[in-house]
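Task: complex structure prediction.
Instruction: return structure tokens for all chains below.
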Amino acid sequence: MAAPSQSQRPSPERVFGVLNAFQSSAALKTAIELGIFTTIAEGADRANAIAQRVNAAERGVRILCDYLTIHGFLTKTEDRYALTQESAIFLNRHSLAYMGTLADFLASEAHKRDFDALTASVRKGGAAVAQGDNTKPNDELWVSFARTMAPLTTVSAGFIAELAGAKEGKGCKVLDIAAGHGMFGINIAKQNPNAQITAVDWAPVLAVAMENAAAAGVADRVSFRPGSAFEADLGNDYDIVLLTNIFHHFDVPTCETLMRRVHAALKPGGKAITLEFVPNEDRVTPPMAAAFSLIMLAETDAGDAYTFSQYEKMFESAGFVKTTLHPVPDMPQQVLLSEK
Amino acid sequence: MAAPSQSQRPSPERVFGVLNAFQSSAALKTAIELGIFTTIAEGADRANAIAQRVNAAERGVRILCDYLTIHGFLTKTEDRYALTQESAIFLNRHSLAYMGTLADFLASEAHKRDFDALTASVRKGGAAVAQGDNTKPNDELWVSFARTMAPLTTVSAGFIAELAGAKEGKGCKVLDIAAGHGMFGINIAKQNPNAQITAVDWAPVLAVAMENAAAAGVADRVSFRPGSAFEADLGNDYDIVLLTNIFHHFDVPTCETLMRRVHAALKPGGKAITLEFVPNEDRVTPPMAAAFSLIMLAETDAGDAYTFSQYEKMFESAGFVKTTLHPVPDMPQQVLLSEK
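Output:
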């Protein structure tokens, strides 16, 4: 519905479609909550059969499945629905790449509330109703993040482990800042039996990372430092510091302050690995990385999706000699590798 | 963001994009509220100049305008923004086809609340938190509809006036059921000096139609019958009865009941003209008409976007001898013409 109008003549369809786009978020979230995709994967393919399995009204399921078909998440042949390739991979609970948990975080009541106040945020130039500057604990939000967003990390965690040389198996001290679910550090520990991980985050968030470390069988090589990345004793002599999805929450001086602490914690020749949404210098491409700025406007005091030249300058100010940019294959994010 | 992934390989981008799609509704509504498009039309083209004119923060305006560019509502060259053709026509307040008022209705708090409860609606098979069956007054909602949605009627009102033979100028009694803003009847009255219009709707809604009739200079030929289309005395001997955007609110028996009342009110040879979202028999094309079903699931007890064969059957049951389908050029809706 958000695609350019098919007709050559100007049409109000796109305006109409985008004003109604909140409906597509709700529809996908509802389908995930009800387990529609999983039920179809298990073999139910007509509205009445699906409805029976998910304990919903046939009329409701029929209309929802038609809508999901219109939006490319299902196909429909006569009155039978089937999964698309993407839905089978990402929306079926039995799939290893299942990312349905993201709905709880991305389309949460709190995030929708932030966007309900977007006009006030644009006037103010920062979040009108949000949690402040993100340097103080906000356990509920970040525990939810840690519990739901791990599926999105599979590809980028593998990419980062490779950049960190995990497969070489050398002794390696890794600091994972604002670790959240902990999956980036845990993934290095899984690939490198000689890696030791230190995870920093608020205590209730680290509890999730502890569970994940135990599930991955690396709990004995992951230690935890509860607290703020700006205040906790980070330790020192690290080979690698991971900074995944953290800088975008802050203004430039705060990012520089953090990166100076990282610089101090690294051993000479150590590397900082940053995972971020990095738009091009035009700030409007590529679409997902560039659009991330609006989320930071609505939800932080002064965060942003920074360009590579902005990061380069910040990291240089913090003492790093060289930063290079590495796109993560098939993902909207990029990795910045900075050398001390 | 809702477009199919560019990459050949399956990517989580589409799931991510649709879960975040509520942000695009909020961004467009905010831009309309702040008058961003109008301000650019008036000559401001950099974030700081626009911000000054709309009384907002430069940072907020810069991020919002970048987002609008990503979604195709603006273009950006260096740091200067410009309107697209569609934005110039539909989103600039000075344009005759301005449809910014739609934001207040389509993306209203009430409608967003309905979609926040979509999972419950799918389970129930009808609105979980809405206004009931729409045969009882719900003044606030429908006054808002009447005040905001008129811009969307320009093309279809012209098309309907032509089908009604307004330009021939013959004496013609027209009944406009659930008239709302009244623009469909008013447009016939403007084109045919011998047309007499009777508008039926709840009294507070008719107050909006009265204003519009006066503004169009046809107030002396529009009379008003406040009340429910199901209970008010509709009068009789009409040449034309207009039924615009009404059937989709009701279940099939209720639609038939209404159409029988219409049949009784028409003179022999008279015509009922219905404007509706009419999906194809597959119920998943064309996208906008088919997607309208979900709105009816979320907001009514038993409404739907009915197919042509469903309408044909209902109208035949109500006594009409023949119904034909007429697509409205460049619009997502269609007109059904039924002969008594």
